[in-house]
C-alpha cells in the first residue's frame, strides 16, 4: 500500500533525514575546523621552536635546548598519531580518502644540521628521568647524524640501559647478531675501543662487515661509511654531478639526505601484484617545509629517485653482476688509504692519482678473472611468489 506523501510517517521520515543531513554536515564542518586548528597547533609551535636554532657565518651556533627537544617530541608524537589515523582512513576508503599532509617535524630537525641539535638530543637521550619514548625518539634522530659524539653517547647509554643500545645498529656497521649488542656487549665495546681512535675502531668493524655473507648490494652501512653501492662508488654510479654536490653539501651539515627516503617526505608506491616495491612518491608540502628553496626540493627528489632507480633496476649487468666481488676487490686495494673525513662523516680514499689508478686496475683485474654472469629474469615477468623471493634475497624489499 502506497503511503501518502503528506502522512505523519512520511513527514517524520523526511524530518529525520533532514536532521541526519544537518548533523552530518555539522560533524563534517567540525572535523574540518578541528583539522585546521590541529594542523596549526602542531605546525606553528614547531616552526617557532626551530627558528631559535641558527648557525652563523663565523661558525658560532645558537643551539636548541633539551626543553625545546621535549616540546618537539610532543609535537612529533601528536603528528604520528594523526598519521596513524589517516592511514586507517585511507585503508578503509581503499585509498580514495587521503587527508593527511605530513609536517615532517623530525625531518626538519635533521635538516637544521647537527650543530644546533646534537647536544640537546644527546642530553635528552641520556636523561634517565625522561619518558622512555622521548629518549628513543632522540636516539633515532641521533642515528641520522654522522657524528662521533652521538655514537659515544649511545655507547654510554647502552651500558646503563641495554634496551636502548639498539640505536647502534643504525650508526655503526653492526646488526642484532653482533656480540656488542648482547648482554655485557657495551662494556666489551668500550674495552675494544681503548687505545683506538674512533676511525680505527670503525674500520675494524668494516673489515668484518664487507665479508658478511648476509650483506646486500645496497647495504646502508656500506653506503654510509664507504659511499659504495652495488660495489661501485655511488656518485659514479648515478652520474649526476648536481645531485652529488647537493648531497655533499648536506653531508657537511651532518646528515645524509638519503635518510629521507624512509621518512614522511617520501612514501613507497607498491605494486604488490608483481611482488616487489615500485619506487617513491613525494609529499610536496612536506618537502616545501624542509627545503624552502624550490631548486633544493627538486634536487632532493632527484637524489632519492636516482637511488631508487638504481636499486630497482631489474638485475642490470652493471649494478648486479658480481657486486660482492667488486666490493671486496675495491676494499682490499683501498683499505690502506682510507681516511676518515670528519666533514663528510665517512671514509675517503686519500691517495695520489697513480695510487688511485692502481686501485682501479686491481679491481678491474679481479673482475676480469670472474666468469660472466648470465642475465636474470626481469621481476615484472615473474610470478608474484618468485619475484618476492628473489627481491628479498637481493635486499630489494624496503625495511
Low-pLDDT segments, ≥5 res: 36-43, 270-277, 377-383, 389-399
Morphology: globular
Q: Element order, helices and strands?
A: HEEHHHHHHHHHEEHHEEHHHHEEHH
C-alpha termini separation: 63 Å
What is the SS-derived class? mainly alpha
Q: What about the largest sheet?
A: 2 strands, antiparallel
Number of helices: 18
Largest sheet, spatial ordering of strands: 1-2
Number of extended strands: 8
Q: Helicity, in percent? A: 55-70%
Radius of gyration: 26 Å
Strand coverage percent: 5-15%
- The overall pLDDT, averaged over residues, is 80
Description:
The structure is a single chain. The chain is mostly helical. The chain contains 18 helices and eight strands. The protein has a two-stranded antiparallel sheet with strand order 1-2. Residues 36-43, 270-277, 377-383 and 389-399 have low confidence and may be disordered.
Give the secondary structure arrangement, pairings included.
Blueprint: H1 8-50, E1 54-55, E2 61-62, H2 66-92, H3 105-111, H4 114-126, H5 132-142, H6 148-160, H7 168-171, H8 185-193, H9 198-209, H10 220-226, E3 228-229, E4 232-233, H11 234-238, H12 241-253, E5 266-271, E6 276-282, H13 284-290, H14 294-312, H15 317-320, H16 323-334, E7 338-341, E8 346-349, H17 353-368, H18 384-393
Helix pairs in contact: 1-2, 2-4, 4-5, 4-6, 6-8, 12-14, 16-17
Provide a compact summary of the structure.
This protein has 399 residues and is mainly α. The protein is built from 18 helices and eight strands.
